[in-house]
Every structure is written in C-alpha cells, then in structure tokens.
Design goal:
The structure holds 3 protein chains of 3 kinds. Helix content of chain B is 39%, strand content 22%. Chain B has 12 helices and 10 strands. In chain B, helix 3 runs parallel beside helix 5 (149-161). The radius of gyration of chain B is 21 Å and the shape is globular. Chain C is globular, with a radius of gyration of 23 Å. Classes of the chains: A alpha/beta, B alpha/beta, C mainly alpha. The A-B interface holds A 47-49, 146, 148-149, 151-153, 178-184, 208, 211, 248-250, 253-254, 256-257, 260-261, 264-267, 275-276, 278-280, 282-283, 285-288, 290 and B 19-22, 46-48, 148-149, 172, 175-176, 178-181, 204, 206, 243-245, 248-249, 251-252, 255-256, 258-260, 270-271, 273-274, 277-278, 280-281, 284-285, 287-288, 290.
Chain lengths: 291, 290, 292
C-alpha cells in the first residue's frame, strides 16, 4: 500500500520509437507525462496512430521506456533488473477484442492462466477464478463450459475475468466496449465501475467512445501524434471541442450540439457532459433565462 | 413512399445449423423481406438475433434450409446463378484485415472482375473507376496490409464496386474503425446511395441506422419491427425490450422535451436537433443580446 | 536506450515483406527474378568454393543497393536466425570427417581442422547469401507478381494436370498473410505476457522456452483458421471459383533487361560452379599467404 499522494503509476517524458534504424522507423511517443492516483478512472483518447496502444503497453512493462521514465508503485521500469512479472500482476492490461485471445479448452482454465503463472496453489487459484468470474457477472459453473461455446459477450467477460484474477491494482483497458451491442456495453461499464469502487484501485481506459469517457472518467488525456495535447477533467477537455475535432477525434453528442449552437451565435456553454446538463442549457436558451 | 421495384426477395426463409456439440440453432425462423432497388435499409438487432445470417442469404453465401431467396429472377439455390447473384449483390465484411487477397491495392480491386473473366481493357477501366469512387486512386500501388483500418474498408468497397453491383451489403463494416474512419465510410455509403446503389447494412450503431430509409429490427431470428427510422425509434419500450437503444441525438431530444414543452421527441440526427432548437429560439441575435 | 522489445516480430521478418522503392530491380519481369532465384540457389548450394560464395554474396549486396533497399535492414533480417545458424556451423566445424585435413586446434576430443573450419564458414556464407537473396526477391516483387510469375512458368504443365493458378494463389495468400499473422502472434504474446507468461530470452532452457510457446499455438491456430474462413467468404463473395475462365489485370511482358539479368545470373552461377570444380580456393589461399 502506498501513502496517499504517491501515484500508482507515473509517466514522465516517455519516448518510444518503433523499428529504430530501419526504413520503417516510427516515433510513437514523443515525451508523454501522465499520472494515475488510486481511486481514479483515467481516460486516454487519441486518433489512430497517436500512440495510444504504445502508451498502454508501457504501463504494464510490455514495452520499456526508450527515453523518459515510467514508475509503477515507485519502481522505475527503465531499470533492466525490474521484476516485470510483478509489475504485470499489479497492472492488468486487457487488449482490444480480448475474446480472440482465449486459448484454453475450458473457460475456467483460461481464467486460471494468470493465477497459475503466479505460482499460486490450487485452492487459491480456484478461489481467484471464482471471485473474478463473479466480478464480471459470469456464473462459476461456466468454468466447466467449453470456451468455444460461449457467446461473444460472455467471452469478453471471461477475458476480463482472466485479468481480474491477477488481482491487479490498476486495470488498463483498450477499447473495452468496441463491438458490443448496447446492452453488453452497459453491463461492462457497470462491472468496471463496481470493480473500481474498492480501495486503492484505478482504471485506465483508452477509447474512441466519447460517451464512455465522459460517463466514466475523472480525468482525460488527449494524445495526438505521440504527445499530450490536452489534459483535464472530461468537462474541461470537451469544452475545447475544436482542438479535438481538428485532430480527427469525436466529441460526445451533447458537446457537438452545444458547439453547433455556439457556431450559430448562441451563448451556450460547451462544458456540458450529461444529457441533463445539455437539456438545462437548452431550456435556459429557449426560455430566455441567462445562466 | 413509392414502391420500389423489388431487387431481393426473401420468402419464408428459415435457417438452421449445427454448431459443435450444441443443439441445432435456428438462426432464422421465418423471414419475409423485400429489398427494393435503390433502397437504403439498415438491419439492427441484439447479438444473436440473426442479422449477419440474414445478410449472408442476400448474396447466396448461405442458402436457406427452408423458403426461398431471389435476387431479381435468380434463385440463390441454383448454382448456375451464383455468378450473376454475386456480381449483382456485393459485400463488405467487418474485419478489414481478412478481406483482401492481393498485396497491392489495385491488384486486389481487380480480383472480383478477374474472377468474372472481364477482358483486360475493361478490367483496367473498372479498377480505375472503382478506385476513384472509393477515393483510393492515390493509393493504387500501396501495399494492402499497410493501409489504415478505414482505408482497408474503402479498399473492400472498391473491390466490391469493381464487380459493378446494383446492391452493396455491409456487415458491421464500421465496427472496427475509429470515429474518423467510420464517418468517412458512412459518407461513402450515402454518396453511393445517392448514385442509385441499393444499400443494406447491418449495424450496432443506432446513429448509422438512422441514416437509412428503412430499418428492419430482428429478434431471435424473426422480423420484430420494420419501418422508417423515425417511427422505429419512437417505440422506445419495444426497443429496450429487444436490448436496443435509440441514437444519441434522439435520447438528448427526449431529455430536452421533458423540460421544454412541445419539443420534438423524434429527432434523428445532431443537425436536426440543432435545427429544432434554432427554430424554437427566434433569431440568434435575440439570444446574444441578452 | 532500451533494446527493441522482445515482441517486435513484424518488422524483423524480412522474408515476405515488400518494399515499394520503385527500383530497376522492381521492374524486372517476375519470371526472370524467379529464374534468377533458382540459379542463385543452385550456385550457392552446388559449389563448395568459399571465394565463389564471396563473389555471390557481394553480387547480392550490389543488387540490394540497386533495389534501393537499405543494406542494414536486409542484414538485420538475418539476426533472428543467427543463434540457430551458429549452432549448425559449429556442428559442421566439429563433425566434418578429418581425413587428409590439417589439425588447427585440439581440445580433448574436440578437433578443429582446416576443413572443419572451412565447412563452418561455408555454411554461414551459404545461408546468409540465400536469406539475403530471398529477402531481396520479396522486397522487390509483389506477391501477385510472384503468383503471376509462378503461374506463367507453370502454365505449360497445366495440360499435364498441374493446377498452376490454384498453386500460385496458395503461395500468394500464404506470403501475404505472413505479416498479418506475425501481428496476431505479437498481440497474443503480449496478451499472455500481460497475464504473467514469460517469453524472456536467454534466461531459461530451450525446452522451457519451447513449452512457454505452446499456449500461443492454440489461439494462433484458431485465429489463422478464422482468418482463412473470413477470407474464403470474401473470395466467394467476389465470385472466386478457381482458375478456369479467369482473366488478369497484369500481363507479363519480358524485356531486354530481363534477359540480360538472367544471363548475368547464369554467368555468375557458371563461374561459381567452375571455381568450385577447379578448386580456385586453393589458388586464392596461396595468393593470400604469399602476399602476407
């Protein structure tokens, strides 16, 4: 446990270059600063090619800093002697379309992969699998089902359970709701909120879905071409829709509506996040009250 | 709405299949559906409702276990009709990475017409035209696997267009794209429809469905609802029961309608919403003066 | 500066990658290039003259430059195979039959003779030249060109029942999916590593590391199958029904440059075989020792 104030993850001036020295060289990250405190949900948004995936992979040590520093629980990841597996237990990473990465014949075994890699005993592994499956809303009996026979939504939840079974402190998710139907999306978001509620945990969410980000995140980092272009609360960030849109990013529908009204000369605030707030602004406008 | 000449007809279509050790699944349970020439139809439904299965019946990738599907006069059951059917009804799939065969853009676009035995001179012309229509002419010699997701989907569209189809099917073609790529693809679909192409799209995004002329709602292998977007999205409770949602602008309009009497609830797009607000506010100058 | 991640497979697999640098080599007829590759294989494997291999290696490097491929990048394609090659080379050094050879160094039961050393170096030179040559081929030839080239060359055999088109397409798709599958493998490795799997190099025994790769095989296989199914659907949707009645966008037309290139390669091959037959190595060795 850390003293309050020590960030769970701290990123300073992070740089990363792919295929350095080859004709296909690409600088993915050009000096990124980031902080994640316990109890927070952080959103990372950015167009394709902005370096989002690269950044996420630094957070659990899959990639190591080529410039700058990443600290997880105070431990510097640039140090080659770091126990990366311990880092990956602390920081769980769920990739895009995680249902494609399931490989065990039986669902329960796949969730058990992580705990088994940690060298835990059979009883403890079983307990962790049970807790993880409950957390994602899958009945424990599903552990004996064939992985191939689960639905897409169930597979995705199973993959999430596989990460939660490591009992990480930070959960990093790459486009977790992509490809889910509306109900699946709601359920997943609920699961995440519930998980985060426990002490000392944090979530990092990389997403194109601005409604998810607006609803879930305490702070948002906007990544463009390997650098942080904007940072703040969702309200602060979406209050600058021009910057987002000029970089090929979407904004929540409510923000878009407010922006269009402003462009037509109406004095409304673009710092609205929810439907209710937007409705209030519009009400004020139409009923002639100044706010 | 004038009745369009029917292009594809599904009559009493049932489809059952066996998946592994499970019981046989009835994916389609009695579908009667007509796609008119020049129509823009969106098919929505929860996961497992049979959307993709239905779509694949339209170009004979799947054959009904019961009932008939006819493209024009061609029944999909006759093997001899396949060439005609699939060059009339072309498809763009969900995964940008699994659709292209060749390693450069123009060679992949040529794949379809090559299969049809189109003579070389015309091949060239078709490839050029398809590339231009899909906005890919500059990338003609680009390696296909180095394209972005959005570009790969436009490559898929170009490849489909090169067959000179009358109808394009889209199987959740925007699902794996970022918002910019998705917007671009939707724009292309609108433009193609404007040029007379029949469009049938399966999607999870209600905003996308809202731009169609007709929405077909599937539930457990049957058509639950059918109609124009406005009337479909007006049926909120039914949609919720079917695990579906309404487009964001519609939801926002309804929230506003709870506070502003008489505000329209059946708005479909952002611009409609803004228009509705503008229409009720008087002139902008009035608002700023305050 | 940290080393490239252990996961960066995509960039390193150079065989199968295409570099569109629009060089004269790119413009050669693929049939000519195929013939040149075959000649190169003959030249590299049939002879046993180290000096001939040196010339061939030099020739390949020159053509790499002509193709505007950065030599460093091509050489880096050898790195993944290096440990494997070194083991093979060492095996050669120690196990080559010893009769008539001069012993250079002895340690217990291990003898290194001049012949053994030569065999080891020959192996390295052969492999390197071959890998560079094949990479050069894929850098400068799109897979559809390759398909067309193979198909054109095999067409005369079609009357004998050889399915030239289907075979060529098979090769085409296999090669075109290499980078895609490498990406998938990379994603899978990262996903499993994120759950504590250890793919670290040099820390564990070969057997242990192999066992660590097993959980990768199942999903990779499944993914490949799924890709194959998706591709089949896409091909069927575009009316693919085999090679009958197909026309082609690309028609191959041989030009003078192609014949010149083939002749040059044939000449080099002949030279290499001649140098091997006439034991030119011995001559070269005498010149070197005399010079020193």
């Amino acid at each position: 446990m850390f003293s309050s104030g020590t960030p769970l993850i701290e990123v300073q001036g992070l740089q990363h270059i792919y295929l350095q020295g080859t004709p296909l060289e690409v600088q993915a990250l050009r000096g990124v600063d980031l902080q994640i405190q316990a109890g927070e949900s952080i959103g990372i948004v950015g167009p394709t090619g902005s370096g989002k995936s690269t950044l996420l992979q630094h957070l659990n040590g899959l990639l190591r800093p080529q410039g700058g520093e990443v600290r997880v629980g105070g431990i510097a990841l640039s140090d080659p002697t770091v126990d990366v597996r311990a880092i990956r237990q602390r920081v769980g990473l769920l990739f895009q379309s995680p249902e494609d990465q399931l490989f065990e014949r039986y669902a329960g075994d796949d969730v058990a992969f992580g705990p088994r890699n940690l060298g835990l005993g059979q009883e403890e592994v079983r307990e962790r699998v049970r807790l993880a499956m409950e957390a994602v809303g899958l009945p424990f009996e599903y552990k004996d089902r064939l992985t191939a026979e689960l639905s897409q939504g169930e597979k995705r939840r199973l993959a999430l359970a596989g990460v939660l079974a490591l009992q990480p402190q930070v959960l990093v998710l790459d486009e977790p709701t992509a490809g889910l139907d509306p109900q699946g999306r709601q359920e997943l978001l609920r699961t995440l909120v519930q998980w985060r509620a426990a002490d000392g945990r944090a979530i990092v969410l990389a997403s194109h879905n601005m409604e998810d980000v607006a609803a879930l995140c305490d702070r948002v980092y906007v990544l463009v071409k390997g650098q942080i272009a904007l940072h703040g609360t969702p309200r602060e960030v979406f209050a600058q829709p021009e910057i987002l849109m000029s970089n090929g990013l979407a904004v929540p529908t409510v923000t878009e509506v407010m922006l269009m009204l402003r462009q037509r000369g109406y004095d409304v605030s673009t710092a609205v996040l929810t439907d209710e707030e937007a409705a209030q602004e519009v009400e004020g406008l139409l009923h002639g009250q100044t706010l | 709405m004038t009745a369009a000449e029917p292009l594809i007809r599904m009559e009493g279509v049932h489809y059952r299949y066996q998946a592994g050790t499970r019981q046989p699944i009835a994916a389609l349970r009695g579908i009667d559906l007509t796609i008119g020439a020049g129509e823009y139809v969106a098919i929505i439904g929860a996961n497992g409702s049979g959307k993709s299965t239905l779509l694949r019946h339209l170009n004979a990738l799947l054959l009904p276990t019961q009932g008939n599907v006819c493209v024009g006069d061609w029944n999909t059951r006759e093997a001899a009709n396949l060439r005609h059917i699939r060059s009339t009804v072309a498809m763009v799939f969900q995964n940008p990475d699994s659709q292209f065969v060749a390693s450069t853009v123009e060679e992949d676009v040529a794949f379809g017409p090559e299969n049809l035995g189109v003579p070389q001179q015309e091949l060239r012309e078709r490839v050029e035209w398809a590339l231009a229509t899909a906005g890919m002419s500059d990338l003609r010699e680009h390696p296909s696997h180095l394209l972005s997701g959005g570009q790969k989907q436009r490559l898929a569209i170009a490849g489909a267009l090169a067959m000179k189809p009358r109808c394009l099917l889209f199987d959740e073609a925007t699902a794996m794209l970022d918002p910019a790529g998705r917007a671009r693809l939707l724009e292309t679909m609108r433009a193609l429809h404007g040029q007379g192409m029949t469009i049938v799209t399966v999607t999870h995004h209600m905003n996308e469905a809202a731009q169609a002329q007709r929405i077909v709602v599937l539930s457990a292998g049957q058509v639950a609802l059918q109609g124009d977007p406005r009337s479909i999205f007006a049926q909120t409770e039914t949609l919720q029961a079917l695990q579906l949602d309404v487009p964001y602008p519609t939801r926002l309009a309804r929230t506003i309608a709870r506070r502003v009497a008489g505000f329209p609830r059946e708005v479909l797009t952002v611009s409609e919403l803004v228009q509705a607000i503008v229409a009720r506010s008087g002139s902008p100058l009035q608002a700023v003066e305050r | 500066m940290a080393k490239p991640s252990e996961f960066e497979l995509v960039g390193r697999v150079t065989i199968g990658q295409y570099l569109p640098t629009a060089s004269p080599v790119h413009r050669l007829d693929p049939r000519a290039k195929l013939v040149m590759v075959v000649l190169l294989i003959v030249a590299v494997t049939a002879g046993h003259s180290l000096s001939a291999l040196g010339i061939l290696l030099l020739a390949v490097l020159v053509v790499l430059r002509l193709a505007r491929v950065p030599v460093g990048f091509a050489l880096a394609g050898l790195r993944p195979m290096l440990p494997f090659l070194l083991i093979l080379a060492l095996l050669q050094v120690f196990t080559i039959p010893q009769y008539g050879a001069t012993t250079l160094w002895k340690w217990g039961i291990l003898t290194v003779s001049d012949r053994g050393l030569l065999a080891g170096i020959l192996l390295l030179a052969r492999f390197s030249t071959l890998v560079l040559g094949l990479s050069l081929f894929s850098f400068s030839t799109t897979t559809t060109e390759l398909t067309h080239g193979v198909e054109h060359l095999l067409r005369p055999l079609q009357s004998l029942g050889v399915p030239a088109h289907e075979f060529a397409l098979m090769v085409n798709i296999a090669i075109r999916f290499l980078p895609t599958l490498a990406e998938e493998a990379e994603r899978l490795m990262k996903a499993q590593a994120s759950r504590g799997a250890d793919f670290g190099r040099g820390q564990r025994s070969f057997l242990q590391r192999t066992r660590q790769l097993l959980p990768l095989l199942v999903p990779l296989f499944l993914v490949s199958l799924r890709r194959a199914e998706e591709l089949i659907e896409a091909m069927e949707a575009r009316c693919y029904l085999g090679g009958k009645g197909r026309t082609y966008l690309i028609h191959l037309q041989a030009r003078a440059a192609d014949y010149v290139a083939i002749l040059a390669t044939a000449a080099l091959t002949a030279l290499a075989l001649w140098m091997s037959a006439r034991n030119v190595d011995a001559q070269v060795w005498r010149w070197i020792t005399a010079y020193l």
